[in-house]
Amino acid sequence: QLPTGLYKKVLVILHDSVLPYMNEPTLMMDFLTVAYGIGGAISLLALNGLFILIHQHNLEYPDFYKKLYSLLDPSIYHVKYRARFFHLTDLFLSSSHLPAYLVAAFIKRLSRLALTAPPEALLMVIPFICNLFRRHPACRVLVHRPGGPADMSEDPYVMEEEEPSKSRALESSLWEIQSLQNHYHPDVAKAAAVLNQSLSEMEDDISGLLELSAYELFDKEVKKKAVDVPLEFEQVRGLFGKKNDIFAEHFSLD
């Protein structure tokens, strides 16, 4: 048993400072799988090492996607390892051979959690979801379901279900993204409205959005050039602004 702080320090550097220099990186399989099962930030940090073992050393982890799905909770939009987590999740969900029910479960869970996410996280996760639709066209039924949310008395998706195959995500619709189209931040509302149109085949580059902060978002808004909005079509004349105002004969507005 290692202290939590030591676990984090080791996992942060393991993928680039330890594994590449080991003669047998597969010796770290047990350590990484145990760390992946701990939960929280430790599980997020273990993803880097597991990614190398799965892709380069043929590690088989039958419940890998189930565990990755369980890591999706409200904190993922707030932790400082958010960029690393979504970068790796994007890689793990890039295969076109993944079943539609699995990808749909990830899309639905990310959308549900997005309802309480900050704007800087939403501007990253909405293009992320759009990219998943581009890779897996079978999941577009979530957006283009006949009748949409209006014909559903209740959402069949089971948020509490830990097994993605039993979450019934493919039977649902993305009413959450439709709700975000009325978000108070105009950039978020604009990003969510993209799903109302047919998506282009080219994927969005989310690399520049992974580490977007609230400060950067605020700074961008402050630096926008203000546009002069005309308030009156006709120039005001007289005290009450009427054309034949008797006051215009005796008073003038400077």
UniProtKB/TrEMBL annotation:
| GO CC annotations, alphabetized | Noc4p-Nop14p complex; small-subunit processome
Q: Which residues form a coiled coil?
A: none
Q: Which domain of life is it from?
A: Eukaryota
Q: Which InterPro entries match?
A: CCAAT-binding_factor (IPR005612), Noc4 (IPR027193)
Pfam families (UniProt xref): CBF (PF03914)
Keywords for the protein's UniProt record, in alphabetical order = Membrane, Transmembrane, Transmembrane helix
GO BP, sorted A to Z = ribosome biogenesis
Domain CCAAT-binding factor, by residue range, is 43-192
Q: Give the stretches traversing the membrane.
A: 31-54, 85-107
Similarity comment: family membership: Belongs to the CBF/MAK21 family.
> What protein name is recorded for this chain?
NOC4L protein
Ranked from the top, the taxonomy reads: Eukaryota, Metazoa, Chordata, Craniata, Vertebrata
